[in-house]
Amino acid sequence: xxxxxxxxxxxxxxxxxxxxxxxxxxxxxxxxxxxxxxxxxxxxxxxxxxxxxxxxxxxxxxxxxxxxxxxxxxxxxxxxxxxxxxxxxxxxxxxxxxxxxxxxxxxxxxxxxxxxxxxxxxxxxxxxxxxxxxxxxxxxxxxxxxxxxxxxxxxxxxxxxxxxxxxxxxxxxxxxxxxxxx
Amino acid sequence: xxxxxxxxxxxxxxxxxxxxxxxxxxxxxxxxxxxxxxxxxxxxxxxxxxxxxxxxxxxxxxxxxxxxxxxxxxxxxxxxxxxxxxxxxxxxxxxxxxxxxxxxxxxxxxxxxxxxxxxxxxxxxxxxxxxxxxxxxxxxxxxxxxxxxxxxxxxxxxxxxxxxxxxxxx
Lengths: 182, 170
What we know:
The complex is a heterodimer of chains A (182) and B (170).
Chain A: H1 12-20, H2 24-44, H3 52-65, H4 76-94, H5 114-133, H6 136-146, H7 152-159, H8 163-181
Chain B: H1 3-15, H2 23-31, H3 33-50, H4 57-98, H5 129-140, H6 148-169
């Protein structure tokens, strides 16, 4: 009696190769796998909540158009987030910096202690503003490090810099944000 | 690497609950205000991510695939357009190069005219031999076309010049 085959989850590399070979379902799977995290990353970077879907879509569209440029030095997600950073920068330029982050109604908590939760929500919104105001590399390094847990080598590969420079960017970001949060 | 740097490097892993602080690290965290502030920041960034809006991956995937398909179709259309254009241009060039010269539009022929170096005055060619002889004789004579009075005045001037020279020479 032979053992039943084990269905392994394909890696991002395998999905990317399958898409290059013409498998459209591979693209859908990559989107399903990474779009939610991409949306949260864009939000943390300062994107307005009602723009997240469009920005995520634009990021993924650009990513699939130049999928050949992803060679695997960084993870697919880090590479995707770097493209998301470009999309966000373009969006910011398109609005000539007039975009204003706002505390959305849907961000307000609806729990037992509304005052404490509101204060927490405002503190987080303040942090989001602070992150959005960081220089681009500091912002991207900080978010990839704190939210994705990426190492400096991985971040450096995704953002086209060196691990040492990525570390410096992270510490500058932390220093600025500490002053903001205090 | 200092204790603070070591702790900083470990923060993302611990915040994601993929690791835990050692007793030594926890003691450092309790005693170092800078590290505590950074740790709070890392935790706040994690909370911020968790509060981010949810996107619909299925809708996004469909939209992205539609856009990619549209772009592929447009790319094929462009390639066809340029290929057709290039073929038409090549055909036009080939036709222009290989067609008969008689088919060329009427253009006034350009005839090279070489001037005879021995006849600088072409109007002389229309004269009879006798007329030419007369003309040549007239040219050979002194001061052809000049009046008798003109000639005399010239002669007088020469005589005056001779006289003047003789005076100077003593």
